[in-house]
Amino acid sequence: FKIRSASEAGASALLMVSGDSNGSGGGGGVGSNLDSGATGTFFVDAVGLLREAQLMRDDGEIDEDIMLACTANPSADGDGHCGIARLEVKIKAGAELVITQPALLPLRHRSWWEAVKCAGLDQETEIVFGIAVSTSSKSMEFWMRLTGSAHLPEAKEVLAEWTRYEKEMTPVRFNAWCEEQAN
After folding, report:
1. Cα 15–88–51 angle (5° rounding)?
2. Arithmetic mean of pLDDT over the chain
């Protein structure tokens, strides 16, 4: 219903997000009952939404020019080739545009991007990198929790650096340092 409504409203692109993954790497998909003991409980994730939108587009139920988009999280999935498995599934399900969570952890993000290029996924779809501007260690901690990366060793190192600099620098110098981090 939401896919059709967005198309009828004139959307040029649909960003398919679920906010959570079932952890299977492939997603439950539309109509997949992941809890066989539950009646009427269905898990719909971004992969399922992409598949459904692709079918609707193929069947002429939504505008054929609508771009199908999804998200990726290099901070959480930045462990090389294993980290791109879910992205590959999303692209196979119909994603033509990928928008990443902000690059908070440079080493993981770089590892993820190298794996994406090695697999040729950057040739199959457009990839837009998200950028977050943090102005405090609390802001950085918020983004790390939001992206599910706060528990990682690199995240703890980055956050410790932010906290140390925020305490050691004058507010003016810290603000300038924050701006440098955004560049």
Report:
1. 50
2. 84
